[in-house]
Amino acid sequence: MEFPSKLIENAVGELSRLPGIGRKTALRLALHLLKAEMDTTASLAEALAKMRFEITYCKTCHSISDAEECGICANKLRDHSLVCVVSDVRDVIAIENTGQYKGVYHVLGGVISPIEGIGPSDLHIDSLVERAAGEESEVREVILAISPTMEGDTTAFYLSRRLRDLPNVHISTIARGIPMGGELEYADEITLGRSIVDRLRQAR
Q: Which residues contact 66 (CB under 8 A, 6 or more apart)?
């Protein structure tokens, strides 16, 4: 693809690094920004820079946050005895959009995947166990809401083994309204919401 400007070429190259953005789409975006008001492009650049450099992670659940503790963990009206374990921040957003879950979360930061070199020590698993096992812990139920893929099931099985001996902590999994091999973020809100409501408690 030939470009009339090296600056446009550089912009297209950077935009096309984004997932799902090919070079043609990147070119359309670059030309749109070029035609837009200067303030529009400047505001976009500022928002992206602030997002990258100022966003932090919640000290409790590891979700993205604007402060040391995210809004969900800081909300006293949420049920802190109920912890929903997810692999990714996108799953938090998907479940929150159902409007049916009132507990809190724990974001693992991925799933166990030996092929990709991701083991238990690479995930936020130890902090989950500490959170549930602490003397002052409020946790009474841990919901394993992990996508039902091979890696997800491996991760859920490992977590069950780590948590099963904790006194007064029940382990449950979301109901299989989510198809095998499916991703939570792509499930429709009704199906995902009912999966949370109809979760299955595991035998201890």
A: 54, 55, 56
Q: Which residues pair with 170 in a beta bridge?
A: 141
In DSSP terms, which residues pair with 83 in a beta bridge?
Answer: 104, 142
* pTM recorded for the entire structure: 0.78
Model pLDDT for residues 43-69, shown as the tens digit of each residue: 999 999 999 999 999 999 999 999 999
Contact indicator for 56, 66 with CB cutoff of 8 Å: yes
Are 192 and 94 in contact by the 8 Å Cβ rule? The answer is: yes
Tokens 């904790």, located at residue: 166
Predicted confidence (pLDDT) per residue in 118-159, tens digit? 999 999 999 999 999 988 899 999 999 998 889 999 999 999
Helix (H, G, I), strand (E, B) or coil at 204: coil
